[in-house]
Amino acid sequence: MDTNVLKIVLDTNVLISIIGRRSPDRWIFDRIVSGEIALCVSNDILLEYEEVLSRKASPDVAHNILSFIDIHPATTFVKIFFQFGLIKSDPDDDKFVDCAIASDADLILSNDGHFRQLAEIRFPEVLALTIDEFAERYR
Question: What confidence score (pLDDT) does residue 118 get?
């Protein structure tokens, strides 16, 4: 894998918002497809993707997205050996933080306000951006 590729962890809310062909943020998914952005995932993240996509879209959409993630050469699969517990207001979001740390991802992409807490934590440093902030920097 190209070491200059941007490595990101996608919160589920962002994944859902970027996969639609008519989404104004589809450019992010297109860059993942092209390999310009590497997606970092853990088993817990994949399970959440499957559950939410099955519910909000369909089991077929969930299967197709997970299959794409599974076979894409720029996907980084991470095993989580340590849980940092950095998101105090919503511990369910910690799976994304732990994945970002374990994969040495450049950032977490999320529109969830709980990730704002990360800006106050000096170590381990984890950058979290909203879609709008990401677009300002990387579009």
Answer: 75
Residue 38's SS3 state is strand
Which residues of the chain form beta strands (DSSP E)? 6-10, 37-42, 76-78, 107-109, 128-129
Beta bridge partners of 9: 108
What Rg, from alpha-carbon coordinates, does the chain have?
14
Question: Angle, to 10 degrees, between the axis of helix 94-103 and the axis of helix 43-56?
Answer: 130
Q: What average pLDDT is seen over the chain?
A: 92
Contact (CB, 8 A) for 6 and 103: no
In this structure, are residues 114 and 89 in contact, taking their beta carbons and an 8 Å threshold? yes
Extract the residue ranges of the chain whose pLDDT is less than 70. Answer: 1-3, 86, 89, 91
Cβ partners under 8 Å of residue 28, min gap 6: 14, 18, 37, 109, 131, 134
pLDDT at 3: 66
Domain-wise residue ranges, the chain: 6-138
State the CATH class of domain 6-138: alpha beta
| β-pair partners for 107 | 8
